[in-house]
Amino acid sequence: MTRNDAGSRQLMRISDATAPRIQEGGPRITGKYHLTLASAAEYTFPNLLRPGKLRRSAHVGRVAARVLFLALGLALVGAPGRATAWNMGPPPGKPPKPNKPVTVHPGESIQAAVDAASPGDTIYVLPGDYTESPSNTVAVTINKPLSLIAKNKPGHGHGWNPGHGLFGRDEKPSSSGRVRILAAAGQSRGIYAAPATATDPPIDGLVIQGFTVENFTTFGIFLKSVNNFRLEDNVSANNLENGIFPVLSTNGLVKRNVSYGAQDSALWVEASQNVRVVDNDLSGSPTGFEITISNEVTAEGNHIHDNTVGVGLYGPPTAGLPPAQWPSYWNDGGWHVYGNYVHDNNATNTATGGMAAEIPQGSGILVLGTHDVDVKWNWIANNDFFGIGVVNYCVAVYGTPFNCTAHPFPPPADPKPENNVVVGNLLINNHSAPPAGPFQSFAADIVELVDFIDTIAPGTSPTTNCFAHNTIWNKPPLTPLTIPDPLPACATN
Question: CA 29 to CA 342: how far, in whole Å?
């Protein structure tokens, strides 16, 4: 038996003269007033007192009362042979109000407020500089669901206009009027969110909004095992390993953040699923935006500039987590890079070791040993080596300490880039000053190197990647160049 939701609400509000009318198509009394429980639920006093129903309201009311008392009796007695549980608690009503938000003032401790908070609480932090106790290696540790929100003064935002980076400013954001978390002596991480122990379930529900996190030796904002998260309007400034770094996390939004000055990646999504990266400004790092061993990550509308590589879509050997911690979806792919402005990524590589130190400068978007990636509708300009590169991982690391002989590619993954789609991008003045080295001759607007044979005879290797509707505008004497020429076309797009 189906009961109309609007009718249920009316039964709880029979004295409310403004209760909603019967929904079109809902149960009604017809003929000789045949009445069902559903229609009785809808015929509350406000409806019965409408014009045209007064003459039959008394009869309907008696019938409705009988039906409702019968239903109530069945509910109270219960089915034969079953015990009936009697709940003598308070009547149903509105859910309990959440705790009143806590406000942290300059001179007080953000960590103390987080420790005292209950799951689901909101903590507001007023503008000022905050340096937490140097006895902790992390300035602010979060191990419960909550909202941590900086109440920056109006007009004291990032210093750039999100969504308009194509024509806007590239300067670093002002710290005036903002909430800044600064590193104390010995502190390596700014904000770290993770379950209290490795055996605890993931944190479910987290908001970090509006903070400027500066000068930590490893991470600015680091999430590990957090579901349903939002990182918005934050600034990561000169945090020396990675700026913003969600790991092993799902269902997240990373929006309108500014991150610069890392020694690895300004923003890195690793081993995570269903994450959207939207309208961020990422600069001044070996890699502006990076994805590894993740599933269904979308980067859209970001302004990525003045890095060594703008966008790095890297194969499994580049992951930071040890393989034992990789999620089940680590090889599923499904990365989408749409409508980003990727320009002037020609910065000298400042990484001091590891795979990051091997990245060549002048790279726009690099698809390195990954599969099922969509690169669509991006504006890619003034990158000195290439605009878009789709490259076999083992080819790229050949001759380095990270070569595939010493470090085999983990099965079942394939170092060949496969099933990648590059469509509808605008490329302007790329490949004008490639760095010296073994791949200097492969500088191009778009380059595909599927296997080693392509370094000798480009386009020889069979490929499942495809390219379509990409536009190249170069200022003479720089001529449009793709390797191979022509690129493999998409069957339909």
Answer: 65
Q: The pTM is what? A: 0.79
Residue 84 maps to a domain: no
- Assigned domain for 220 exists: yes
Neighbour-count burial of 20, counting CB atoms closer than 10 A to its CB (0-12 exposed, 13-18 middle, 19+ buried): middle
Last residue of a domain, one of 61, 77, 93: 77
217 and 273 share one domain: yes
| Helix, strand, coil percentages in the chain from 3-state DSSP, rounded to 5 | 15, 30, 55
The answer to whether 177 and 151 are in contact (CB under 8 A) is no
pLDDT, residue 353, reads 82
19 and 149 share a domain? no
Determine the Cα–Cα distance for residues 365 and 309; give it in Å rounded to an integer: 7
pLDDT at 78 over 90: no
Order of strands, edge to edge, in the sheet holding 281-283?
128-130, 179-182, 211-214, 235-237, 258-260, 281-283, 303-305, 341-343, 379-381, 426-428, 471-473
Domain boundary among 77, 112, 132: 77
Q: Looking at per-residue confidence, does 5 or 480 come out higher?
A: 480
Looking at the 3D structure of the chain, how many domains does it have?
A: 2
Per-residue pLDDT averaged across 17-23, rounded?
31
Write out the H or E segment, with its range, that includes residue 11: helix 5-11
Question: Average model confidence (pLDDT) for the chain?
Answer: 82
Domain ranges, residue 34: 5-77
The phi and psi torsions of 342 (rounded to 5 degrees) equal -120, 105
Q: Answer whether residue 492 is part of any domain.
A: no
Q: 404 or 159: which carries more pLDDT confidence?
A: 404
Q: What is the pLDDT of residue 220?
A: 98
The H or E element spanning position 98 is: none
The contacts of residue 82 (CB under 8 Å, 6+ apart) are: none
Task: Give the other-Cβ count within 10 Å of 39's Cβ.
Answer: 23
Question: Quick check: is 258 in a domain?
Answer: yes
| Closest to 192 (Cα-Cα) out of 211, 178, 172, 173 | 211
Residues 211-237 have a mean pLDDT of: 98
Kindly report the CATH number assigned to the domain that includes residue 416.
2.160.20
With H, G, I as helix, E, B as strand and everything else as coil, classify residue 24.
coil
106 and 73 share one domain = no
Tell me how far CA of residue 460 lies from CA of 250, 392, 450, 453, 455, in angstroms: 39, 14, 9, 7, 9
Q: Are residues 123 and 199 in the same domain?
A: yes
